[in-house]
Write a structure and sequence with these properties.
Homodecamer; pentamer of dimers. The chain is α/β, with parallel strands linked by helices and 269 residues long. The chain is built from eleven helices and eight strands.
Length: 269
């Protein structure tokens, strides 16, 4: 089978088919996840939390993202159907267009197929520039972990009407600027539904309800390896005697079938 591409994911949205995204930080998990049917692998700066033991994603460097992207790319290449790899540009590596373009070059040359950036419509010039140069972009809105210090903690975003309306406008602006995917983290389920209907590109949710086009989880969370706080939107798939490979497949299947997430994994306005 041919590798998953942004055209594959867009076609799935257009047909009303859901797809799964899962973090991966090394070659082994990348191959296991892709072979389990996960359509996209996110080399997330969440590696700062789950691998490095940091209290946030802020300390993660661009060099570390390049290293982990290359490892994931090697494992993904061994899969029967390679997934699309998206990589986070880490904290303070895309504050202006020139810096963002150089950061994107580094992770794309390491093996990423798409870059992910956190923010709202201030990212439009960067997204436009990357799109012109052939770099697919995922724009991450809602709870943006790199801004945890400004937000004052990990909190649900967009609960009041003005902020919800602004998030819809920002999502539309980013999609029109050339973003290929919108990712929403910890936003009320009704708001995520509005945004999914407002943009033509796929919308990936995490703690954003069941009406988005796709779901993403941190692999350590869905495998029950989280030793700290377990977020409300997480489901442990390492139950019922499953192996790791079976757990990964169960996650991908439940996302595609609309079983996960359930109402208990979302947030109200």
């Amino acid at each position: 089978m041919s590798a998953i591409s942004i055209r594959t994911l867009q076609a799935m949205k257009d047909k009303g088919q859901k797809f799964s995204v899962l973090t991966a930080y090394d070659a082994t998990f990348a191959q296991l996840a892709a072979d389990a049917g996960v359509e996209s692998l996110l080399v997330g700066d969440s590696l700062g939390n789950v691998i490095q033991g940091q209290t946030s994603t802020v300390p993660v460097t661009l060099e570390e993202m390049v290293y982990h992207t290359a490892a994931v790319a090697r494992g993904n290449a061994r899969a029967e159907r390679p997934a699309l790899i998206m990589t986070d540009l880490p904290f303070m590596t895309y504050g202006d267009v020139a810096t963002g373009v150089e950061s994107a070059r580094a992770v794309m040359q390491a093996g990423a197929h798409m870059v992910k950036v956190e923010g709202d419509d201030w990212l439009v010039p960067l997204v436009e520039n990357l799109a012109r140069q052939g770099v697919p972009v995922c724009a991450h809105l809602g709870l943006t972990p790199q801004a945890v210090n400004k937000m004052g903690g990990y909190r649900v975003q967009g609960r009041d009407e003005d902020k919800a309306d602004a998030m819809v406008k920002h999502s539309v602006a980013l999609a029109e600027a050339g973003a290929d995917i919108i990712l929403l983290e910890c936003v009320p389920s009704p708001l995520a539904k509005r945004i999914t209907e407002a943009v033509k590109v796929p919308v990936v949710g995490i703690g954003a309800g069941s009406d988005t086009d796709a779901q993403v989880l941190v692999c350590y969370d869905m495998l029950g390896l989280n030793t700290q706080h377990v977020p409300k939107f997480v489901k442990n798939y390492m139950t019922e005697g499953r192996s790791v490979a079976e757990a990964l497949k169960a996650y991908a299947d439940e996302v595609r079938d609309g079983v996960f997430p359930g109402p208990e994994h979302g947030f109200e306005a």
